[in-house]
Write a structure and sequence with these properties.
Blueprint (H helix, E strand, L loop, with lengths): L1 H4 L15 E3 L5 H10 L6 H4 L2 E3 H7 L1
Parallel strand pairs: 1-2
Length: about 60
């Protein structure tokens, strides 16, 4: 398994590098943001504005 082989990975990116974040359901947002905060990510309105949900896309189809 890949997870067994990778012990540590550090990615450097800014919020401007992110085009969008796709989550399955709206209830996934808070745990996702808490995880980012616990990893030291600056969670702000600019980041949150890039979050979309699969249900939004399914509704548009």
């Amino acid at each position: 398994k890949l997870n067994d082989k990778i012990k540590h990975i550090h990615l450097k990116f800014t919020i401007d590098d992110i085009k969008y974040i796709m989550l399955e359901k709206e209830k996934d947002l808070i745990p996702f943001l808490e995880k980012l905060r616990s990893q030291g990510c600056d969670v702000n309105d600019k980041l949150i504005s890039k979050v979309f949900y699969t249900s939004q896309i399914e509704d548009d189809l």
